[in-house]
Write a structure and sequence with these properties.
about 300 residues, alpha/beta, pyruvate-formate lyase- activating enzyme, three-stranded parallel beta sheet, 11 helices, 11 strands, disordered C terminus
Length: about 300
């Protein structure tokens, strides 16, 4: 069984290599099963290009996995009145942690229409876990020796919008603030459209929330960001960064910036000096710069 990734071209190529390698080494009575993001996004293409694969099952069909494996292996299981519903979001079983920190998934999927992102096609619409479920897992991790819990999601700052959690991420942080044995919460990936004053206040006032802001800015050109269906421009990004600096002068900021575009690879190069200037002045202390698909960074 190969759990694939489809986020970037290199990951897709590696997934195919692993599938072919296992196909070469598998026993004659074994079966090849492909699951994960590539199966979700390119299921029919995988079936056509890799006929040696016996089963391709995307993320939104994980509830069918047990039955599909039974049929594939001709296994005759004890009859069940009802098959359990399975969602990767609630697959929280994990080995005993051996590090002082651990990631905790609070939501799956994303509903942002960003033109340069494959997450909605791979992970589907946002599905948030219930606050109590998240708190219970945080407490379990803390009881196992974990001191820092890293909250992750494809659109973390939009947490709770799809469930009855009107307080969203700020309220969740407050709810987790007194988990016994937990020293720190860290947040990864904050979409600028979802960063409210309440969230900034909670992150800077809550004693166990790390003063770390992982901002998904992507670029500073307003016109290009609009084409990417993302918010902001250099002025709005600067206001956000300065607001964070005002609330906590010692906060650590990180972001990522994109070079080039699929349609017009050199289109962004004229505004690149502005991006670089922002990084060097009021911008984040750590920046990741990557070429967009189809473009190589000079």
């Amino acid at each position: 069984m190969v759990n694939t990734c489809a986020f970037i071209e290199e990951a897709r190529a590696e997934s195919v290599e692993v599938i072919l390698d296992l196909e070469d080494r598998k026993r004659s009575d074994a079966r090849a099963v492909v699951i994960g993001c590539m199966a979700q996004r390119f299921g029919s293409e995988v079936e056509s290009a890799l006929p040696e694969v016996d089963l391709v099952l995307g993320i939104d069909r994980y509830g069918e996995l047990i039955g599909a494996l039974d049929r594939l292996t001709e296994w005759d299981p004890v009859g069940l009145r009802r098959r359990p519903v399975m969602d990767i979001l609630h697959a929280t079983g994990r080995p005993e942690p051996d590090l002082p920190y651990a990631c905790l998934n609070v939501a799956e999927g994303c509903e942002k229409p960003c033109t340069v992102c494959a997450i909605p096609a791979s992970r589907g619409k946002q599905r948030s876990r219930r606050p109590l479920e998240i708190r219970e897992e945080s407490a379990s991790l803390a009881a196992s020796g974990v001191r820092e819990v890293v909250l992750v999601a494809q659109d973390l700052a939009a947490y709770g919008r799809d469930i009855d959690a009107p307080g969203g991420l700020p309220e969740l942080l407050e709810f987790l603030g007194d988990v016994s044995g937990l020293d720190r919460l860290r947040l990864l990936y904050l979409h600028p459209r979802e960063i409210s004053e309440r969230l900034l206040r909670e992150m800077t006032d809550n004693e166990i929330v790390a003063p770390y802001f992982d901002l998904s800015l992507q670029h500073v050109s307003g016109s290009l960001l609009r084409k990417m269906k993302r918010p902001g421009n250099v002025e709005k990004h600067t206001v956000l960064v300065e607001r964070i600096r005002h609330l906590d002068p010692d906060a650590s900021l990180r972001s990522s910036f994109m070079w080039g575009s699929r349609e017009r690879p050199m289109r962004m190069s004229t505004s690149w000096p502005t991006s670089w200037q922002m990084c060097g002045s009021t911008g984040p202390g750590s920046s990741h710069i990557r070429p967009s698909p189809g473009h190589q960074r000079p």
